Amino acid sequence: MAVDLLLGLQWGDEGKGKIVDVLTSNYNIIARFQGGPNAGHTLKFDGIKHVLRTIPSGIFHKESINVIGNGVVVDPVVFIKELEGLDQFNIDYKAKLIVSRKAHLILPTHRLLDAASEASKGKAKIGSTLKGIGPTYMDKTGRNGIRVGDLELPDWKEKYRALANKHEAMIAFYNVDVQYDLEEMEVEFFDAIERLKELQFIDSEAYLHQALRDGKTILAEGAQGSLLDIDFGTYPFVTSSNTTAAGACTGLGIAPNQIKEVFGIFKAYTTRVGSGPFPTELFDEDGEEMARVGQEFGAVTGRPRRCGWLDLVALKYTCRVNGVTQLMMMKSDVLSGFKTLKVATAYKYKGETIEHLPFNIEPENVEPIYTSFKGWSEDLTKMSEASQLPKELNDYIDFLEKELEIPITIVSVGPDRKQTIFRD
Ligand code: GDP
Ligand code: IMO
Ligand code: MG
């Protein structure tokens, strides 16, 4: 009778999709609680790679029910394309995929507003995925949004028109070069809405409460990463939702005392896509090697991801904010062949050594202090048991577990489902 929670501890793309897929057989329900199509969650099995955007990563398992929670923002156009991409896998969406009536809709003009806002910022742009995420959450908190449940009401199109008109005036106010044909976008949008309406819309909080009473198990799937959290991330270079554990409560209607395990996922190094501070970022051959071996290109935008060493100062912070009970270290295979590995264990900040994340982590404010480790040369990708892992990797793991005071229960050694090593 509990909910487990899985979320990213860095700047996103830690490998959440892969691990949710691996863990799904232990759960009856997988539920996304925030974010929208800015997410790109990659799963790989049977030689096929899938990228999911709004659909929870449990969708490929026959038995699982997949819930899109109230905290998620849904773009019907992207969502329908995502469904079409899965057509060949014979998934019974009507039975397996259900959407909260309280989830907010991303409108075509939200996407345009995102583009106009970014264009107006020039060099200070967030590096948004331009999926309309910020403007949609702004309308949610501004109490102007349109929700999935509104689609069942007769007057929703009037509400839509009023909001779209307001957005057009806002786009004009930005006075930047954003070209668009709203009529054309609306044809696609209204068509997608009709298809979306073929799915089950539910009062998801009531559904999940009943499921818990019936003894069902739930895994809540986070999107983005804790350092992109609207409150605790590197503001303003963040996304517009609470990506941290509390977001699962507000994004699903689950009470804090129903959460049991909090699985925190991190890469054995660090990546970031988009703008914003990144203290351990590398601009040398080591960074290039991580990007090359790890194929660090965004699953949504294809943009190259910035790469750097593991940042334990930031990781300690996100473990605390989330109450992480188990850690999962991803992409360990990517570090094979590095002679020396580094981990930032403190920052030099205003002439002092500090071990917590300060308000401001721009490069002019913090300089990471590193601890070095001997690397390993073994190829990890064919390993399947913890006993096979090289000594140097075990030393790296031991150090992290001791510093973070949380066990690392999974070591991932490749993108495939099977390339997953469980540790006791
Ligand atoms: P998510 O957004 O957290 O689900 O992560 P993404 O799917 O955006 O990015 C993770 C990328 O790393 C994807 O391309 C995965 O297929 C890949 N991946 C996941 N785990 C591993 C791993 O252990 N090793 C390697 N080499 N790739 C991995
Ligand atoms: P997953 O779930 C990595 C980043 C964007 C940008 C900032 C704001 O795949 O880990 P937004 O479109 O939300 O307004 O962009 O957040 N970002 C992500 N980076 N992984 C993600 O999701 C991301 N979702 C948003 O690059 O810097
Ligand atoms: Mg991703």
How would you describe the overall organization of this protein?
The protein is of the alpha/beta class. The protein is built from 12 helices and 20 strands. The strands form 5 sheets. A 10-stranded mixed β-sheet has the order 9-7-5-2-10-1-11-15-19-20, with helices on both faces. Strands 14, 16, 17 and 18 form a 4-stranded mixed β-sheet that branches. The chain has a two-stranded antiparallel ribbon with strand order 3-4. The mean pLDDT is 96. Residues 8, 11-13, 35, 38-41, 126-129, 131, 133-134, 223-225, 228, 239, 273-274, 299 line the site of 6-O-phosphoryl inosine monophosphate. Residues 8, 12-18, 39-42, 44, 294, 299, 330-331, 333-334, 412-415 line the site of guanosine-5'-diphosphate (GDP).
Overall, the morphology is globular
Sheet/helix structural class: alpha/beta
Bound molecules: guanosine-5'-diphosphate, 6-O-phosphoryl inosine monophosphate, magnesium ion
* Structure annotation, total helices: 12
Main β-sheet, spatial strand arrangement: 9-7-5-2-10-1-11-15-19-20
* Rg: 21 Å
Low-confidence parts lasting 5 or more residues at pLDDT below 50? Answer: none
Instruction: Tell me the strand percentage band.
Output: 15-25%
